[in-house]
Design goal:
Elements lengths: L2 H5 L7 H12 L2 H12 L4 H29 L3 H9 L4 H34 L8 H9 L2 H50 L4 H9 L9 H15 L5 H6 L8 H29 L4 H9 L5 H9 L6 H33 L4 H21 L1 H29 L1 H9 L10 H27 L13 H17 L1 H7 L4 E4 L2 E4 L5
Helix pairs in contact: 2-8, 2-12, 2-15, 3-10, 3-12, 4-10, 4-12, 4-17, 4-19, 5-6, 6-8, 6-15, 6-16, 6-17, 6-20, 7-14, 8-12, 8-15, 8-16, 9-12, 10-17, 10-19, 12-14, 15-16, 16-17, 17-19, 17-20
Length: 502
């Protein structure tokens, strides 16, 4: 069977099904668990402006790039980089899938946390007189529960990945995303009308212009945009493997980017006003937000729900939705890894089992130590920026204008103009400015131990972890390139199948 036919066996059942699944990928716990704390610790309204701009200059063109490569190559990240950029650059595709896998390892822990709070809500542990901080901290130090819910997260992930596109990815997205949006909308409206909630809205929507040129805000906005929308992970490249031939890349990219931003704003509207509603002063709220507590969503929404009419039901619905959102986000991460295994000749079942075992083993450190989870979130947030650069470099090799005209715009009702060419050409500049500043800042945070890889957010920990991965993948580059099915190759910018499609 030719590569073309084997890769086309699985396709999205409908465009709507793809959009829901893609929004499930983008709109997940990153919008509810991560976005509010990052926005809260980066001056609220100022961060929102930077975040919107970063979506337009980083996420949107990167999603188009991933879709274009994935739709053309019909391969995972490893094979796609081999074919688009050349055999010697296969390691870049491998690095991208490794970053995705590494995030999956600790993301499974976050998925477990969401499910644990769903159980708290169901059994009635979220009460008006409870200490929500103690509940959160107690769960963090309960090793048995952490491991149990990590295992449950891995099993659910594996079940839906094994079911494939229509029975897994598409089905979950159609159910989870509408429920999540309506749940977030209802929570946002209620918390905003609580005493003190208006201060949260002011914090979120009124920019602090004296911090507008604070590069830390822009770094965090860029990494959050990439983290939240799934840009640069290889997930959208993988999803595009299952596109129909006439799929509209431009419209899909705009809808996913806009939907993700809406999800992020709803997440912030649900969490940040709650912080102000349950603190005595704006200064106290600012201190909590500035700390960037990873439990922000769990602590303050868990405190909010018991005060609402029908609060127990709403809490059950919300944490169920949060769990579903985590599921719809972890599924494409897993699919990205599994797809590369399948490209190497492995069956989907075996590939799924290997990934599940690896996720459980490598997720344990994050489950047992919150500092390790924070470290991985820090390291691979930066790693995603490198992934974005690698995608841009693959397009440079192909020809930026040629890629825009012949691949992105080919079946698009809305044609993207040379804005795409300009932005993609600026990717190295963005990276030099942001990462260059970040290097200096990291040294200032730990002036005497910036080199120490054992410090959670040091320069040394990022450099060591990412450098080790890159060196290993470069050393095994040729072996990895040879592992991927070689039925397809490029000829004058077009992919054709040996014998059958010449």
């Amino acid at each position: 069977m030719s590569k073309q036919s084997s890769n086309q066996k699985e396709q999205w059942g409908s465009r709507l099904g793809f959009i829901f699944a893609a929004l499930g990928m983008a709109v997940g716990t990153g919008n509810i668990w991560r976005f509010p704390r990052i926005a809260g610790s980066n001056y609220g309204g100022t961060f929102i402006i930077a975040y919107i701009i970063c979506n337009l200059i980083w996420v949107l063109p990167l999603l188009m790039t991933e879709m274009g490569i994935g739709k053309s190559a019909r391969l995972g990240t490893v094979g796609s980089f081999r074919d688009f950029y050349g055999k010697k650059k296969t390691w870049m595709g491998t690095f991208i899938v490794w970053v995705c896998a590494a995030i999956t390892f600790y993301y499974a822990v976050v998925f477990g946390q969401a499910m644990r709070y769903f159980v708290f809500a169901v059994v009635g542990d979220l009460t008006a007189d409870m200490d929500s901080v103690a509940l959160w901290e107690g769960y963090l130090v309960n090793s048995n529960e952490q491991v149990i819910f990590l295992l449950l997260a891995v099993v659910l992930m594996g079940f839906f990945i094994y079911r494939g596109v229509k029975g897994g990815l598409e089905l979950v997205g159609k159910i989870a995303i509408p429920v999540l949006f309506f749940s977030l909308l209802g929570t946002s409206i209620w918390v905003s009308i609580q005493p003190g909630g208006v201060r949260g809205l002011e914090f979120l929507f009124v920019p602090k212009w004296d911090h507008f040129f604070d590069l830390q805000v822009w770094l965090n906005a860029l990494t959050q945009a990439a983290w939240s929308a799934g840009a640069g992970w290889g997930m959208m490249l993988t999803y595009a493997n299952y596109f129909k031939e006439n799929e509209d890349i431009v419209c899909n990219s705009f809808m996913i980017t806009f939907g993700d931003m809406c999800g992020a704003m709803l997440g912030a509207l649900a969490v940040l006003p709650a912080v102000f509603a349950f603190t005595n002063t704006a200064a106290e709220a600012g201190e909590i937000l500035g700390a960037g507590n990873v439990g922000l969503t769990f602590i303050y929404l868990a405190k909010l729900f018991p005060t609402m009419p029908g609060g127990r039901f709403i809490a059950i619905l919300f944490f169920l939705s949060l769990s579903l959102a985590a599921l719809t986000s972890i599924i494409p991460q897993a699919e990205t890894v599994v797809r590369n295994f399948v490209n190497s000749g492995m069956g989907r079942g075996k590939a799924t089992i290997i990934l599940c075992v690896a996720t459980f083993i490598f997720g344990l450190p994050s489950a047992l130590n919150i500092d390790f989870l924070n470290n991985q979130d820090w390291v691979y947030g930066i790693g995603l920026l490198l992934c974005g650069l690698f995608f841009a470099m693959a397009v440079y090799k192909f020809g930026v204008d040629k890629f825009r005209v012949e691949i992105i715009n080919k079946f698009s009702d809305i044609k993207i103009n040379k804005y795409y060419n300009f932005i993609i050409s600026c990717f190295p500049i963005f990276l030099v400015i942001v990462v260059g500043w970040w290097l200096l800042q990291s040294i200032q945070w730990h002036p005497t131990e910036w080199w120490n890889p054992m410090i959670v957010d040091s320069l040394g920990t990022v450099v060591v972890q990412l450098a080790i991965a890159i060196i290993i993948f470069i050393l095994v580059n040729d072996k990895l390139a040879g592992k991927i099915s070689d039925d397809r190759y490029m000829n004058e910018g077009k992919f054709i199948t040996k014998k059958e499609d010449r």
